[in-house]
Recover the amino acids of this structure.
């Protein structure tokens, strides 16, 4: 009976060792799968991120160019209006004389 109990205990220990090895292998496989899925997700994220950054940079450049062109047009319009304005140098000289050399 003692020998049979020893065999049963030995068998149970072998089963426990086998179960432990099976769990270790399952943990290793799960770790590999998680690492692979993480790498794939990171790669997909990077691709989508780069596409988004490229689109935003292009949109920003387009808007900057449009604003620059609008600014240049407004500035030129202002300069043209200054050129068309009649200059009254006699009145300006009189104003300066009265401000700088009061009587």
């Amino acid at each position: 009976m003692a020998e049979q109990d020893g065999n049963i205990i030995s068998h149970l220990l072998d089963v426990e060792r086998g179960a432990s090895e099976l769990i270790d292998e399952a943990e290793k496989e799960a770790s590999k799968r998680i690492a692979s899925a993480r790498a794939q997700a990171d790669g997909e994220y990077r691709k989508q991120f780069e596409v988004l950054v490229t689109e935003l940079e292009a949109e920003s450049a387009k808007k900057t160019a449009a604003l620059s062109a609008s600014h240049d047009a407004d500035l030129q319009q202002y300069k043209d209006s200054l050129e068309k304005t009649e200059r009254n140098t006699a009145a300006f000289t009189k104003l300066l004389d009265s401000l700088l050399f009061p009587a």
In short: The first helix runs from residue 2 to 84. DSSP finds two helices and no strands in the chain.
